[in-house]
Design goal:
- By secondary structure, the chain is α+β, with helices and mostly antiparallel strands.
- The chain is 38% helix and 14% strand.
- It has a ten-stranded mixed beta sheet with strand order 20-40-39-38-21-34-37-36-35-41, with helices on both faces. The protein has a nine-stranded antiparallel beta sheet with strand order 23-22-33-32-31-30-29-28-27, sandwiched between helices. Strands 9-5-10-19-11-17 form a six-stranded antiparallel beta sheet.
- Helix 39 packs antiparallel against helix 43 and helix 40 (1191-1212) runs parallel beside helix 43 (1262-1289).
- It starts with 14 loop residues before the first helix and ends in a 33-residue tail after the last helix.
Amino acid sequence: MVAPNAIRRPRKQSVWSRMVDFKVEDIFRKKQQPPKARTIYINEDLPQDAFNKGKVRKDWVFPSNQVVTSKYTPITFLPRNLFEQFRRVANIFFFGIAVLQFFSVFGTISPGLVILPLLAVLLITALKDGYEDIKRHQSDRSINHSRIYRLEGGGWVNPNATGEKAKQYSLGFSIPFKFGSGTTKVQPEMDEVKIEKGPNGGPPMLVVPDHNGLDGEPDSNRYLQGSDEKEAHWKTTMWEDVRVGDVLLVRSDDAIPADILICSTSEEENVCFIETKNLDGETNLKSRHGIGALSHLRTPHDLAVAPFQIHMEPAVSNMYQWNGAVIFGANGTDEQKQPVDILNIMLRGTVMRNTRWAVGIVLATGEDTKIVLNSGRTPSKRSKVERQMNPQVYVTSRTQRFHRTSHLLTGLCIYYGFSMLNLLLLAVMAVVCAIVDSILERRGHNDIAPWEFGTSSKGDNPNINGLITFGNALITFQNVIPISLYISIEFVRTLQAAFIYFDREMYYEKTDQPTLARSWNLSDDLGQIEYVFSDKTGTLTQNVMIFRQCSVGGKVYKGDEAHVDEGGEGDGQENGTHPLTEVPTAGTESSSSTAASASSPKPSPITKFVDSTLQADLLGGSSPEHARSLNGFFNVLALCHTVLASQDPDTGMITYKAQSPDEAALVQAAADVGFIFRGRDRDILKLQTPFADHLEEYELLNVLDFTSARKRMSVIVRKLEEGDSRIFLLCKGADNVIFDRVKAGPGSDELKAKTGEDLDTFASEGLRTLCLAYKVISDEEYTDWAERYHEATVQLEDRDDHIERVSDEIEQNLRLLGSTAIEDKLQDGVPETIADLKRAGIKVWVLTGDKLETAIAIGQTTNLIAPTTNVIIVRGGEFGGETKSAYDQMVTAVENFFPESGILDSPWVHPPESDRASQHRSDRLSLRRMPTGASSLVGHDNGDRPGGFVLVIDGAALTHALDEEFTREMLLQLGTRCEAVICCRVSPKQKAQVTSLIKEGLGVMTLAIGDGANDVSMIQAADIGVGISGEEGLQAANASDYAIAQFRFLKRLLFVHGHWSYQRNGNMIVNFFYKNIVCIGVLWWYQIYCAWSTTYVFDYTYLLFWNVFWSLAPVIAMGIFDRVIVLHEDAEVLMALPELYRPGREGRYFGLKLFTYYMWEGVYQSAVIFFFIYYAYMTTTSRNDGYNGYQFEFSTTMVMAAVIIVNLFNGLNTFAWTGWVWFSVSIGIILVWAYTAIYSLISPGWFHTWVYGNDHYLFQSADFWFGIMIATPLAIGPHYVFKAIKVLYYPDDIDMLRWLRKTHPEHDIASDTQITGRLTRTKSAPFDDTRSMVSSAFSDDNEATPRRSTQGGRPSMDGRDPRDPRLGSRTDMSTGMPPSSRGFDFSMEERGIAMQRVQSRLSERHQSRVSLPGLAEPSTKRRRGSIHLFPALRKSIREKRFSGVPPVPAVPPEKVPGGPSNDPAPPAPPSPTR
């Protein structure tokens, strides 16, 4: 966001920065070439400059259409996988140790045997990685082998060169290209093609003569079957074989395989409709239109002979812009061009809907397609625990600044902490041994030490011997870095992935889909998530709009419960099989008696919205005036739209083709009540009503388009009825916009007040609302206005402003009819899941392609935005623009709402000095009214609401906010101080950028969840990617680390499996390091008595089997079976108490502090074991023969005591003792005893051992038995006392729950209101991250302490109704004003092709002609009660003690005005008996 005249010097990247930014995958991928402009030749030869020595030049070769998300190929698997595995410092260390032992100077066992453990680790990990990648290859194959119709035969040849596709498991680098078609000659038939001017001097058009009746529909069986290979026809081909320049036939519901330029479609206006939710998350259909000059190219023969070129600008990631031109006659003198823009192109990832067929030419394939340009490559992810075990320094991104130095220092400590700390410890031990040994050798050699007797000193150098001792020390103490730990972790994580797969609570029976762990090494990261980034469409919502309620004339209709349940479940849209709406054209069951047309189509078997009260009122049961209001209300619903209708001749069903799901739901609701839109014949709208025996007709005169600024849509129609030719303006829009235009009057004001109350109720239930109004226009008024409107539409300058001004003139003095309430149906359990995520302290950010109003509405229904929340809106603005820039809006938000945060004191949130002058003007901008739809001033208490803050930012503002370092820092600081952030109108690339901003800027664990191809880049950018296998395909699931079927399963995935995995793995790792420190510690203390010669104190076989038989089982059992609370109810408790996720989120189960504690435990216990037993044996002898014990007698006692101690210590750190835990703790002890007894019996006749005969002296010695019995409690006792004191005097939440379960096993913790009551808050109480369950549920205070938001929210103490929308506020920072509309949301493509089509017809006429009938329509859809995100506040024990305190009295509901409205209404409908 820098001023245009600001000059930036490119920063030179340091060597260190390049090392930090280095990624392994960059070595094994092709370097991305910069985008270049392209020219595509159709039925023309490539020019000569495209060739070099007879071959097509590289810059003329397009990539293949094969898209690969897998990481490996047979060629790259071995080097890349080894490279990734050797990023582990332990693997490098063990490899060095193995190489060291191949030198004879280091006496050891067979070098080949030494390297086997490392090879086993590498092999097991490689097999796991290979299996995961095979799954990716399989999913890639399923996509690349999808089928599409492509033009073949008839002499057609595609001259454009395409790179050869990389077949499955092929090379990952460039290979020779396939050119052969570059020299193909154009067919003779091209001479017959002519380029003629379009009608009325319009654009040029290709004219192809009729060849023996070949013209016809391109999807006819003749062309699809292709019986004659010589004749041009359509032939199915795989997606990966599609090439640039190919001609494709796309049929309804086909996914688009590449970016395609539309030539012709089956629709009359050469229009097709596409579903773009894979790209931008929007569910409303978008319209695209073909190139006018190519609209006659319909049949395969026509397409096989027409010559032209397509020039396109470079393919970049911007999905909303791509320009080019179609050129005819490029080689002649009559060259003509026709422009191409994004509205002429169907992008890969979209799906064509509501259009029978479309023919197009491929413009871009594979890596050049917009969706791939917005996607990232498959990253190599490692868990946080694994990174903490590496010596890698936690280096923040360039956006993280010095004011977060504390985080950096903490990261340094943590990431240096584990393997590096152990390596450092090992290095110190080796250096000490080398130095002391060298000194002692020098002294002993000079003093002729006894052990030097008879040795030759020739060539003997104590300094060199010291270096050899250093190498021997590395070999002796190598178990400080346990290689078996990595094998154990891989084994445990594999089982944890299996637990996730077999969890029946996360199995979705409807689609027979379990939860699948696609990356097995990230399970512990699930327990440390701090930020969740979620898509909206298909992830939080079901892509289904359901008409729930309406308010007409001040009376609310909610629908009959039984009918709504039935209709809701039977809706085709809800099942995702078809986005269209089917209705009978003869009326519904309730109105079938009044349908007079005997030839009417069959009625629909499903009635979606039926209200018996509404039907009675529609017939005049309430009053004639109210019946007329109902009639007008549903007439507006049935006529004010741009929906197309078509009737199936076989089934007699009407199919509505709507660009917006909102419009489809509204028109469907009108049809359910009996007002059935039967379609349009050019400008004539046909409507079937319950009261007429014929179709009513209306002439469409004008359509005043919907825009986000207008927030309304109007149509002007004339009724075509004998004796009734009145002109009506029908309008629908936001309540604040409609109310401002309603005609004043006593009855009108009363109706506005009652409708406003109903809107408040609808909005509090999370429904999307619209208001409906109308007016009657006289012929004279319309004639004068139509002239002015026509003049405005032909203005060359400021056309939009002129049109808006003239439109506003006619949209005045309206008569209010009522309001509608539509539910954007959520996925099951979404509100509850988000509420529990917030209780767990997890920040939820929603990133969606929907418009701002839709995003806010979903935020409210999903509990992301509570009724008491303050919403900060930041929308697009550049430097020097008329509105405040996005940066200035964020600064203003900080000044207004976070003045004491200190954000503005940091130099990193301010632009460089060179930019400050350019910002001076925008800083001075006042909060004046801007044309953004805001309608009222900021309230005096704005920002002082109890519910905290939610930031809503649109894609345009986000583009500028991510542009510079200081703007990114400002966005980071502002966003992290809000309870949630909603980003709307964002591209897939922006989703990944926002995710990376938090991940790298804060260094926290992030999770991204989505279900479409537009979410892939976000999923890959996050630490954990979760894909939902939903209606948008499997792209997200294939690119994810975990695939689930429903968003609600995320709760169990994090709270149960994430908690388990992180706690188990963290506990397992520190105990693993501990037990090895005990073993190595015993060896180390012995060096004091062996002249630091690195001699083993006990037999080498005990050391060899230490991590295999003696001590491995307890830590493995800990990683598989341990549970922190209770044995059988652990999952239920974790699900019921999301606050228990907090320890994992804060990293308490694995960190430097915990690691250091366990290391000191190991050092202490090893000292107890060695010195106690050593001096017990050295003080006196317990032998009967009077001899002192020898080395392997007391050392065997040490190793047996060490095995007993570490197994019991590991068992003491295990919380849930199952049969397997008992077995694992005891098996190592049993094995070491059995091994010692048997190993001591092996005589030298078999092979030499140092412990032969040990059984004769060992088991009969009092030192052996007392040594073990006394050393064990001495070693474990302090840890036991420490744990006892902590649990008894300083318990945390988990300790208390564990104790409750122990003392009262019959108690149901999950449903105990005394525990969960304090953790269940009302909507007005934000999550308080600073209070634990202990302080809330077991506080001794006499009064409940309200929770406070850490983001600046204030506790609600006034007892007001949390559903009151006045408790929350919104501030549009671009205007300084809060939008005042109540729940308004309407999704529609602004200035789309459907609207342009209607407008182009109407622009030819600007004089009125015929007339129109009275308006009237009934509608009501049953609406179930709103989803309550939280149950009533449960009472704790403390509250029961003070039950005498009177409750806060409820606010009585206001009196609702009743009776019919006095506002004039349309003429009464004809009598039903007519």
